């Protein structure tokens, strides 16, 4: 069985390691030929330097090598997925599993819609949930949601990709799984900003709680199921991402709150997702005050203190 992973960043590399340690043949694709050649020689990558690549992982910078895989894990950033699919026609026909968490800014849609638009008829799924690349690479227990509208395909992928330490729970609620994974990054930025500005644990708890309600509000309006948002891909991922310094989105929020610079080379999916989610909410008439606040912070249009004052001045009402 051959599993292909497109994207040699930290998460893609971790997934490749997990699949190879489970006895599967893995092809890991990266865009930079020099970096791929170096990783092939040293069996380590710059994005996940503490982890060694098993012999079962074959590295490549040629997309043609991914053709015909039993499943292709798309571990490229959410905003890079649409242009990536345009240059990868050889992937059509293989089940494609989106691993990025976000909403495409240009189309205001999730990753499976981008896959279906690029390759009509190709099975599309999303893999999401509470997970850090370092934990997966170390073989630590991790549970994720695998969502696919085709239940037969979902069951096949579940058995093809699950490992002893990587447990996949399947769902047909693609909308809920995608939005849970995307919106929790926005809330993680908000929580990080509160902590960076030294507003305290209580403020973060309030933001996390109201942020979860906001995630549900938008997802349910778009046809998602409440239980999906209460599961791994929603609440579970939110708790991990909004409370741990291992989260890039949380660290980004910390930097905003503390008025510190943040490494621009680090991908922060929630920064773009905030704007995309806000545009989507306005299109369907759903109020997302925390998302709007994060979008303003990311754009440099507001200060953390002003944003908090605005959220606290909202009308008093029943919870």
Task: Give start-end ranges of low-pLDDT stretches.
Answer: none
Rg is: 19 Å
State the distance separating the first and last CA atoms. 51 Å
**The named CATH superfamily of the largest domain:** NAD(P)-binding Rossmann-like Domain
Shape: globular
Pfam families: NAD_Gly3P_dh_C, NAD_Gly3P_dh_N
Family: Belongs to the NAD-dependent glycerol-3-phosphate dehydrogenase family.
Pathway: Membrane lipid metabolism; glycerophospholipid metabolism
Binding site for NADPH: 11, 31, 101, 133, 248, 269
Summary of the model, kept short:
The protein has 319 residues and is α/β, with parallel strands linked by helices. 50% of the residues lie in helices and 12% in strands. β5 (96-98), α4 and β6 (124-128) form a beta-alpha-beta unit.
Task: Please specify the SSE layout and strand pairing.
Elements: E1 2-6, H1 10-21, E2 25-29, H2 33-42, E3 57-60, E4 71-74, H3 78-86, E5 96-98, H4 111-118, E6 124-128, H5 133-138, E7 142-148, H6 151-161, E8 166-171, H7 174-196, H8 201-221, H9 226-229, H10 232-241, H11 248-257, H12 269-284, H13 289-298, H14 304-312
Parallel strand pairs: 1-2, 1-4, 2-3, 4-5, 5-6, 7-8
Antiparallel strand pairs: 6-7
Helix pairs in contact: 3-4, 7-8, 7-10, 7-11, 7-12, 7-13, 12-13, 13-14
